[in-house]
Design goal:
- With about 200 residues, the protein is mainly alpha-helical.
- It has one domain: Arc Repressor Mutant, subunit A, CATH 1.10.10.
- The strands form 2 sheets. Strands 1-4 form a two-stranded parallel ribbon. A two-stranded antiparallel ribbon has the order 2-3.
- The longest helix is centred in the middle third of the chain and has 29 residues.
- The protein is globular.
């Protein structure tokens, strides 16, 4: 699990870490820490669907896989232990063995389940209140292309090159706001029989 890519994402290759992260509370905890910064189990609790003691247990479990750690600015009072994500994001590298593939599939399913509600919630809660300029910039795309595996890797690399300066910068523009970019890369089956 080495954060050695241009977006600063942690590379998750260990099937045990994938299975640990495939738990909905653990995934929610990690996402919350990545988005809002360091927090205690008590602060995370109402946002992740767990009591403070359960959230604390999940935090320790994530720490065992190197996904979270004690926050740098954390105090010495263990009752108010502050946690932080180790990296601002993470990516999954699917191992080629059966156990690794199964673990990656479990984590992918949990990710799909968590992301499924985002567009609907955005459309009903956020979009109606957006200023016209932001509303015009929002949108969806469902583009199908036919490429080789090498071309798809090049497309992913080019997209990361465009995003990297915005993901890794240490300052926030005064008129900026968070934008969620959901990107699925879903190759079809070789026989083309996909729906």
């Amino acid at each position: 699990m080495d954060p050695g890519n241009r977006l600063g994402d942690m590379e998750i290759t260990d099937p045990k870490a994938m299975r640990a992260l495939a738990h909905p509370v653990r995934l929610a905890v990690l996402e919350r820490l990545q988005r809002y910064g360091p927090a205690t189990a008590t602060e995370l609790s109402p946002h992740v669907g767990a009591t403070p003691s359960v959230a604390s247990w999940h935090l320790r479990h994530l720490a065992g896989f190197g996904l979270v750690r004690d926050a740098v600015e954390g105090g010495t009072d263990r009752r108010e232990r502050r946690w932080e994500a180790v990296a601002r994001g993470w990516r999954l590298q699917v191992p080629e063995d059966e156990d690794g593939t199964s673990a990656a599939r479990a984590l992918s399913w949990e990710m799909f389940a968590r992301a499924a509600e985002l567009p609907e919630r955005w459309a009903t809660e956020t979009e109606p209140a957006l200023e016209p300029a932001w509303r015009r910039l929002s949108g969806l795309a469902n583009t199908r292309i036919t490429v080789t595996a090498e071309e798809l890797a090049a497309i992913e690399d080019a997209m990361e090159a465009v995003l990297a300066p915005y993901v890794t910068r240490e300052w926030t523009p005064s008129d900026g706001r968070g934008v969620r970019l959901l990107r699925y890369v879903l190759p079809e089956s070789a026989d083309g029989a996909d729906a």
